[in-house]
Design a protein that fits this description.
alpha+beta, 2,3-Dihydroxybiphenyl 1,2-Dioxygenase, domain 1, globular, disordered C terminus
Length: 158
């Protein structure tokens, strides 16, 4: 069996390709890898070193929509500060349940810290970072502030 080292690319369908190019380039800061109007597609590099790619494909303005999910790996500190960054950019940070959030959440079974938000087409995006602490599946999904208050998480406090 071939060993898999990570995810190289993911693709999202979008209603307005130009609007989505602006969002992913200007709001999220991704570098354009290529725009192909004849194919109604655009590709972005995600992260350094051209090691991951996001593809956008126009599906028009029909009433049927598919909401997809893409998670962007980043640092713990970036995830923790992302709710404010997202709000400052006019976006709504969301918790694991899709509700507006003031802070990041911790997926304690991994453990990883995460913040969710939506692109202009309603696709669910996520900033996520793995943490070095022991997994605590018994805690479920909790707010970042609750994780910091846990005795086993004391080495994570800032």
């Amino acid at each position: 069996m071939t060993e898999i080292h990570g995810l190289f690319e993911t693709h999202l369908t979008v209603g307005d390709l130009d609007r989505s190019i602006q969002f992913y380039r200007d709001q999220l800061g991704l570098s354009v890898a290529g725009i192909f109007p004849e194919r109604q597609a655009a590709f972005f590099w995600v992260g350094p070193g051209k090691s991951a790619m996001l593809g956008l494909w126009a599906n028009g303005h029909g009433p049927q929509r598919i909401s997809l999910h893409t998670a962007f790996r980043t640092s713990v500190e970036s995830v923790i500060t992302s709710p404010e960054t997202l709000r400052n950019a006019g976006m709504t940070p969301l918790d694991f349940e899709g509700q507006p959030a003031e802070e990041a959440v911790v997926l304690a079974w991994m453990p990883a810290v995460a913040v969710y938000f939506r692109d202009p087409d309603g696709n669910l995006l996520e900033y996520i970072a793995m943490m070095a602490q022991e997994a605590r599946p018994d805690l479920g999904v909790i707010k970042w502030s609750e994780w910091k208050a846990e005795p086993a998480s004391s080495s994570l406090r800032h």
